[in-house]
Design goal:
This is ATPase, P-type, heavy metal translocating. The protein has about 290 residues and is α/β, with parallel strands linked by helices. The protein folds into two domains: about 5-45 and about 165-285, Rossmann fold (3-Layer(aba) Sandwich); about 50-160, Calcium-transporting ATPase, cytoplasmic domain N, CATH 3.40.1110. About 40% of the residues lie in helices and about 25% in strands. It is elongated and about 70 Å long. The structure holds adenosine-5'-diphosphate and magnesium ion (MG). The site of adenosine-5'-diphosphate has 23 residues, from α3, α5, β5, β6 and β7.
Length: about 290
């Protein structure tokens, strides 16, 4: 590979909204055999809306929403932001809670006025009843989030986040180039399956922790695959770093961009196929 050709291609990529940090990524992209896509914020628009609020009694609704806004107030996660917007739209004003702990791929926990508040998926929640309540929401193809106070489920939320309009075409373009696609998400199976079906991804791994996503990359690599990862979140960072080529959504978190070799500036996942095509052209010319 001549440095001049690589530089020219890097410039060409930049003009198309593909910011390449690491020159070897330009060379590897054309050889990718499989691409793992995160769901939330990557395949989906990342502008989730609370479509159902289910108070479960035992606590005043306005108190539930105030705690929700306080604990998720500093959240970088799309779901956290959607929950805060929902509380605010109902007139809730709350100061941000201190000492909130984010558990990537699961949710957030905090201690507020001596009460333990946990917001997130069934894995994180400390009420054994949570699983059934959240499963019912997921059956409708929506992402469930529960909220526990002192170990008791006080509310559940159903959240919808539609697929990006261009996602089916972006995935179809990759398949046409002979690249396999897999969706890996921390979300639950039925909600994830609805999105995967919409965009044409057959292989799905749901309930994946950030470490699981990274292990998928390693496992496929060990099988001789050349593995790309596309993601936007903190939860994708380890997988983005482990992949042969990591693609970060430019509108996502900074840590995802730090860990990825390539940033899709506008967050347009159709650029992944463009990158592969550009790499293949560049490497053919060079040889
Ligand atoms: P994805 O892999 O689709 O991007 P994540 O791994 O970020 O999803 O999150 C997985 C699950 O963890 C979410 O579906 C949600 O149930 C829960 N979760 C993560 N962060 C939060 C948060 N800040 N508030 C509530 N739930 C959260
Ligand atoms: Mg994501």
């Amino acid at each position: 590979a001549t440095p001049t050709a690589i530089m020219a291609a890097t410039g060409q990529a930049a003009r198309r909204g593909l910011f390449i940090k690491d020159g070897t990524a330009l060379e590897s992209a054309g050889r990718l055999s499989v691409l793992i896509f995160d769901k939330t914020g990557t395949i989906t628009q990342g502008q989730p809306q609370v479509v159902r609020f289910i108070p479960l009694g035992g606590m005043d609704e306005s108190r539930v929403l105030a705690l929700l806004a306080a604990v998720e107030g500093g959240s970088e996660h799309h779901l956290g932001r959607a929950l805060v917007a929902f509380a605010r739209a109902r007139g809730v004003r709350a100061d941000m809670a201190e000492g909130v702990r984010a558990v990537p791929g699961s949710g957030v926990t905090a201690e507020v006025d001596g009460h333990r508040v946990v917001i997130g998926n069934a894995r994180l929640l400390d009420d054994p009843q949570a699983e059934a309540v959240l499963a019912e929401i997921a059956e409708h193809g929506q992402t469930p989030v529960g909220m526990c106070v002192d170990g008791k489920l006080v509310a559940a939320f159903a959240i919808a986040d539609p697929a990006r309009p261009g996602a089916p075409a972006a995935i179809a373009a990759l398949h046409a180039m002979g690249v396999r696609t897999i969706m890996a998400t921390g979300d639950v199976e039925p909600a994830a399956r609805a999105i995967a079906d919409q965009v044409g991804i057959a292989d799905l791994v749901a309930g994946a922790s950030p470490a699981d996503k990274m292990k998928m990359v390693e496992h496929l690599t060990a099988q001789g695959e050349v593995v790309g990862m596309v993601g936007d979140g903190i939860n994708d960072a380890p997988a983005l770093a482990a992949a042969h080529v990591g693609f970060a959504i430019g509108t996502g978190t900074h840590i995802a961009m730090d860990c990825a070799a390539i940033t899709l500036v506008g967050g347009d996942i159709a650029k992944v196929a463009e990158m592969i095509a550009l790499s293949r052209r560049t490497m053919t010319v060079i040889r």
